UniProtKB/TrEMBL annotation, chain A:
Gene Ontology CC: one annotated term: plasma membrane
Protein name per Swiss-Prot or TrEMBL: Heme ABC transporter permease
Stored CDD domains: TM_ABC_iron-siderophores_like (cd06550)
GO molecular-function terms, A-Z: transmembrane transporter activity
Pfam families assigned: FecCD
Keywords: Cell membrane, Membrane, Transmembrane, Transmembrane helix, Transport
Higher taxonomy: Bacteria, Pseudomonadati, Pseudomonadota, Alphaproteobacteria, Acetobacterales
InterPro entries in alphabetical order: ABC_BtuC-like, ABC_transptr_permease_BtuC
Species assigned in the record: Gluconobacter sphaericus NBRC 12467
Main localization of the protein described in the UniProt heading: membrane
TrEMBL record, chain B:
Gene that encodes it: hmuV
GO terms for MF: ATP binding; ATP hydrolysis activity
CDD domains to which the protein is assigned, alphabetical: ABC_Iron-Siderophores_B12_Hemin
Protein's name in the database: Hemin import ATP-binding protein HmuV
Organism of origin: Gluconobacter sphaericus NBRC 12467
Record flagged with keyword Cell membrane: no
Residue ranges constituting the ABC transporter domain according to the UniProt record: 3-246
Stored PROSITE patterns: ABC_TRANSPORTER_2
Signal peptide positions on this chain: none
Protein task: Part of the ABC transporter complex HmuTUV involved in hemin import. Responsible for energy coupling to the transport system.
Source organism, top-level taxon: Bacteria
Amino acid sequence: MISSRRQALIFLVALMPLLLLAIITALNIGATGVHLSALWHGVTDPYIRADRIVLLRIRGPRVVMSGLTGAALAVAGAIMQGLFRNPLADPGLIGVSSGAALATACMIVLGGAWLASGSWGVWAIPAAGMCGSFAAAYLLYLFATRGGVTSVSTILLAGVALGAFSGALTGILIFRANDTALRDLTFWTMGSFAGATWSRIGLLCPFLCVAAAVTTRLATPLNALLLGESDARLIGYPVERIKRLAMVAVACAVGPTVSFVGAIGFVGVIVPHLVRLVTGPDHRLVLPGSALLGASLMIVADTLARVIATPSDVPVGIVTAVLGTPVFVWLLSGSHRREVVS
Amino acid sequence: MSLSLQDVVWHAGGKTILHGTSLRFEAGQVTAIVGPNGAGKSTLLRIASGLLSPTSGTVTLQGTELNHLAPERLAAMRSMLTQETVLRARFTLRDLVVMGARVSAPRLTGQERTVLAEDLLGRIGLKHFADRDVMDLSGGERQRAHLARVLMQLEAAVSNKGDAPGFLLLDEPISAQDPARQHLVLDLARAHAGKGGGVVLVLHDLNWAVACADRIVVVQQGTIHAQGLPQDVLTDTLARTVFGLEEGRVQIHERTGKPYILPHDIIFN
């Protein structure tokens, strides 16, 4: 299916009220019977002041964090699928997720006592994750680059190898871990927005701003890269620079988010495909569409994670996987298959 | 404008593919590069386009070395149709052709690009396919669609800044075309040279090479075996030594005086 430009633009515009609806719904629903109206009534009415605080300090940052994470993962997935010309490419492919996982596991298991002894524990885990993800992406880039030329197929294969190696090391750490560390680690691998705070969002923002600024320059070069690297170069794009920029954008979008909220699967792979079904392959439409749809879906998934087992919080990674798997199978079946695999 | 290769050597995989080749292509001319399989024709074209950097030697376009030209300047001065373009995305034909002008003609508006793309699709016989998905076309139609994109790169650059038309480098542009479309494609290449642009074609069909080119370059085992006017180059001796054909295969066309090769007396086992 190739839709007209007009249809694609209508779709993009329609995603904005969808995001707004997701935000309002997410703020309005939760374990406690707090409603959005408390935001303004709570200013004057002392009885619902506490409700206002719940909205501003707990649900608000959580909704914003889940929206930003969804957008970051989906856009990173779209960039990776364009760069690798592979429909299964995932934001974690350049090592960011496995690097973050290993560093986080090291911090949780080996730094347990140190983490418990001070208030820095809240920051130490994401900081370790971020260092791990950037280090892994940079190592992979160095490994795949020879004489100024980066081989994307080497990144792809080395990324898989790095993932396996990091998985093995994480396994050793799990083997050594005590019960508390094991539980923390298990929850990290399933992802959660329960720890979202405005200060964490503040720390995340500079990275996401860099990613967003770089991404705006990638849309038309990524379209040309769909013709192959040689043709993109012949059209006049500096292909090696584009590859570096794409890796910077993905590392900045995924590394910090994964470090804060843990590994959340499927969104990065599925959302760009869903957007492409309507907009076609043009990255000028796919990238903003993925950001809007990724944010909306992650907010919905986190809202479900908060309410399906009230008062417990289900890890959001479980929700995205449970919802994502049937969608993925649907995409691969029937008439949609052609759009996804070609 | 001219495109020159000086003492170009290219090593790959422990083998020397080009042994110190020097060539000069002129604007306003169609040059056909012919030679047996694996002679180094495509490598020569890739080096001439700047896609490959020679192991030693230099390539200059209008007197400037290719690696000293900014990518967008180079994009406006030369374009190339490769053999291995693999588009795995469902772009419309119009979008594909417009893509050719994204870097070479930054000042053109979207409307101007669309008008030029549709004009080119008309000239290449794909006018009614502008809204079709490139992936749904046949192999031959797709090859012509990419040719339209490559032509767009140079023609949009001319509309953009009023520069002279650049060099059009085509690697086997008629390999997937029926006889009528082979004629159409080569006619477009000639028209480009007629407007003052340079054209370099790698062709396997010697008859088309003779009919269409002003000059023929014969490449064999990474060296220039012969070059010159078609009637001077395509001789019986060359057909035998370079292509391994039997003696007496080259005929002279009565009306045009140009040489041609007929396969009608070949007997298959």
